């Protein structure tokens, strides 16, 4: 069960004009479950994405990057995305690249376009060969059920250890233009995106030029998926794709307008919702933790400290136990790698409770106050460094027995 | 129960001439257990140490560093060490420094020396005031039972979540001189030493000049305690102290001799044993894992990759499950931060089994071979980078349910 995160229902998810979605059961890892997703795009669509920085980036990531680069070099636009779960097609060498390209070629034949107009994605177990015949064999079934209101099925089709599908949808007014945006995401373990996340797809019906979309996807990722961590394990397959179908009335060709500023806020906001759903459904998560580091000399040092707290197994198990053993947070701050940190200027808050003041225990701090906050399912850790005006926020979850159970059993 | 690590017994531990050890029950956290240790040194002894780099380094660490600096500046030599468990005296600000200094002053009065001739150490819960009256009140009892063959009691007196005392002892021949060396260590969680470890003490009866001892302690720590990690949490209190009592026949005044080279090997070897005991007794540990990264362009990148593997919760839970889900190791290599890593030159071995070859799955690899190795309680992960001639080794353990249980319950 995810932390304070109600299941989205199909009726909540608005179709985005210019996108049709199909799914199929290929039996990649287990029978009788959706494991193939196809998203077919209108001719007017532009697509931009950010991908994992893991050096063992998966074959489909390499192919998707190459195919987007082909568009940037003047090639024909992207016509479809295809996603499989059950196998990451990572750590698979040349064979893996062949499999990803074969998947693109098969879908291109069905959609009457070129292979490089397809973006492939995979998620699942690493270091095992992709059963490419099963993937290719299931594509006609996915094409056969293409329709606009399949977003809920899409969210289900990309799940792995997720306990619930993740999706968000809204219609916003941007300077008088109604813009619909719907997105899905997945991921519950191996989550510490560093450029993007393990599969997020967000579509909007505005018309957005490629250059602007490239800027927009990076901004949105940096303020959403790139601020979450479950276990510090940056996946081999992380990808966040932003699709502007170009079917609505809003058209944006440069970043110098009120329209763009408002769109950026709205896109970042929905991307953040999708990212936070991943944390709420983190493997074994019982708490949703916001870590905010303020008054830093630069953003990098704020992020270092926030991630150091968010990754500490001792901090995470203390949250699981609702135990205000808060010295563990100071310890994690201390080893974050900010070498000139003067701890005597540092304050630590747990929600509204001032726990440590000027680097030592706040004389007025009562354990009962810490205990009261620790009982909650949503908690904010706030660190004030007293060094400057920069800040950073990271969202994470606790470390529970269930995390160990899930990851000791995942392949079985 | 620790991994393949038999309990030392008192008879195994040789006294080191020039050191007397006393202990007491101060009731700092719990009644009826040894929690105070005093080590009294001969006038001929030299002492050197390395300490945590955590910016929230504990008050006793600050005082010990200052008191060693006073010796280096020509002050009177160190006469005694005092250790308490049950409270780390970290995150305690000015009050904590006062408590550490008060402890030194009280022991100095009993031993008729100056307070700066005492080195204080603490281990236990962070962010709670040290009950200094209990510590000081227990010192006379510790002094009263000072004797040379108390090493086993000393190992017990410094335990926190350790399930067993850690100690090693041997007599070695160095160029015709018999040298006795006995050491103790503690630590089972919050273990990722970065300069030293959470309390290690090693005594030898050679006569070693201060400059040489400073070099020796750093070398030994860098090749032992600084190569272990349990949970990545670099403690606020890590300290590794090397004491040369000067009572034996071996005397070393500079580093340019066969005697020194042999002593360095012997001291590093016993330090490594003490460090590895900490991993074998890691919180909840069921496996002892050696991670070796070879053929790196420099040692730093080898260490980055080794620690990335050793800290990955996904890798650690796979070891706990004896599940050869070895793609998780490739993933951890990929996000280690070696930006120009060419994975197509990389091989991965699990003991003698070649799992990944040239960055992809070894075609000859059979899951049964991986499974066979994963069943073992001692496993070596070997990564060959194909980039150069440098290497690094890190020792770690798995992540089990018991780790979560221990750290969700530690303070209760």
From TrEMBL, chains A, B:
Signal peptide: none annotated. The active site is at residue 197. Its main location: cytoplasm. One of its GO terms (biological process) is L-arginine biosynthetic process. The record marks 123-124 as: Involved in the stabilization of negative charge on the oxyanion by the formation of the oxyanion hole. Substrate binds at residues 160, 186, 197, 283, 407, 412. GO terms for molecular function: L-glutamate N-acetyltransferase activity; L-glutamate N-acetyltransferase activity, acting on acetyl-L-ornithine as donor. InterPro entries: Arg_biosynth_ArgJ, ArgJ-like_dom_sf, ArgJ_beta_C. It comes from the Bacteria. The record marks 196-197 as: Cleavage. It is found in: Cytoplasm. Keywords: Acyltransferase, Amino-acid biosynthesis, Arginine biosynthesis, Autocatalytic cleavage, Cytoplasm, Multifunctional enzyme, Transferase. Pathway: Amino-acid biosynthesis; L-arginine biosynthesis; N(2)-acetyl-L-ornithine from L-glutamate: step 1/4; Amino-acid biosynthesis; L-arginine biosynthesis; L-ornithine and N-acetyl-L-glutamate from L-glutamate and N(2)-acetyl-L-ornithine (cyclic): step 1/1. It catalyses: N(2)-acetyl-L-ornithine + L-glutamate = N-acetyl-L-glutamate + L-ornithine; L-glutamate + acetyl-CoA = N-acetyl-L-glutamate + CoA + H(+). GO terms for cellular component: cytoplasm. Its EC number is 2.3.1.35, 2.3.1.1. Gene3D superfamilies: ArgJ beta chain, C-terminal domain (3.10.20.340), L-amino peptidase D-ALA esterase/amidase (3.60.70.12). HAMAP family: ArgJ. Heterotetramer of two alpha and two beta chains. Catalyzes two activities which are involved in the cyclic version of arginine biosynthesis: the synthesis of N-acetylglutamate from glutamate and acetyl-CoA as the acetyl donor, and of ornithine by transacetylation between N(2)-acetylornithine and glutamate. Belongs to the ArgJ family. This is Arginine biosynthesis bifunctional protein ArgJ. It comes from Massilia violaceinigra.
